Write a sequence for this structure.
């Protein structure tokens, strides 16, 4: 078994891994699993459903990068983060090519509320049908920037970041569950151990939350061995969280994880983005195929932003770089 990568590879691995997974899924978004079985994605494709060049990330990657920029420049500030999301929506800020070609309904509604003066922490929908994956797809940087916080602050920051677009407790909790797995992976746990620790911490932290039952399958089943037919890849936040973890647990390389995620079909960019972020944390930056990483646009912009975020995180986190 290969040793875990040194810690300094994990943060850029997670961020670039998210963008790569997103970009792999963009050309085939919305097509079902049967289509991917017949014509599996094996690498970066050009054009496809959104008519974008190969390597183009979607709203997932753009909002994730807006979150990174906000954390670098302002620390954790939900209002600033929400306003940067609005800059993306209105001006193409951190869009791959300056164009907004995809946005979820709940995210759009929330950003319109922010435009009209609603505070960011009140903008996300609170209804049971507002539990799409639009906050989960961009939550990774908030977890990474909060690793040294106590459990309550860690939960609160992640929840508040979710609420900007997705305010239902289920969405907030899904983001926190993801964050707990992230915390384990960054600290060097293997995926199975990171999940087991996250399960235990999650049940402790939300012991009195009535939504806890929604996470029953994630908390009590042997996820790694679940048949693919029982893994759903819709835009529902629980489906995306489950599918992404399943892909990480049931593969042994970055490439296999993200391709497995995309080839589940349906919401391919987001499943690819979330799975790619987790796999990038676990396997490290160097495990991302260079041809995929270099297909991403805005290479210099990414290098600068990720470098700034990594420097800030290193200053706050006591990690072993040897």
């Amino acid at each position: 078994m290969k040793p875990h990568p040194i810690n300094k590879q994990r943060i850029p691995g997670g961020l670039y891994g998210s963008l790569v997974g997103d970009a792999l899924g963009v050309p085939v978004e919305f097509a079902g699993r049967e289509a991917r079985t017949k014509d599996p994605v094996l690498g970066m494709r050009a054009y496809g459903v959104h008519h974008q060049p190969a390597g183009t990330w979607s709203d997932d990657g753009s909002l994730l990068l807006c979150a990174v920029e906000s954390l670098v420049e302002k620390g954790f500030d939900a209002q600033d983060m929400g306003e940067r999301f609005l800059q993306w929506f209105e001006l193409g800020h951190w869009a791959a090519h300056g164009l907004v070609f995809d946005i979820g309904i709940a995210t759009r509604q929330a950003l319109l509320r922010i435009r009209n003066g609603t505070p960011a922490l009140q903008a996300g929908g609170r209804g049971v049908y507002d539990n799409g994956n639009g906050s989960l797809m961009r939550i990774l940087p908030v977890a990474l920037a909060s690793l040294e916080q106590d459990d309550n602050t860690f939960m609160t920051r992640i929840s508040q970041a979710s609420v900007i677009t997705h305010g239902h407790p289920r969405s907030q909790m899904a983001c926190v569950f993801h964050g707990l797995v992230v915390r384990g992976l960054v600290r060097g746990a293997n995926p199975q151990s990171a999940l087991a620790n996250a399960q235990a911490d999650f049940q402790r932290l939300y012991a009195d939350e009535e939504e806890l039952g929604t996470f029953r399958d994630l908390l009590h089943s042997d996820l790694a061995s679940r048949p693919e037919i029982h893994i759903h890849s819709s835009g529902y936040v629980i489906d995306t969280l489950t599918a992404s973890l399943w892909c990480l647990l049931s593969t042994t390389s970055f490439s296999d994880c993200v391709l497995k995620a995309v080839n589940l079909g349906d919401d391919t960019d987001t499943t690819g983005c979330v799975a790619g972020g987790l796999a990038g944390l676990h396997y490290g930056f160097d495990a991302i195929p260079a041809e995929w990483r270099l297909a991403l646009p805005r290479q210099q912009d990414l290098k600068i932003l990720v470098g700034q975020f990594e420097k800030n995180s290193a200053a706050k986190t006591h990690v072993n770089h040897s």
User: Anything to note?
Assistant: Residues 169-186 form the longest helix (18 residues). Residues 8 and 94 are 24 Å apart (CA to CA).
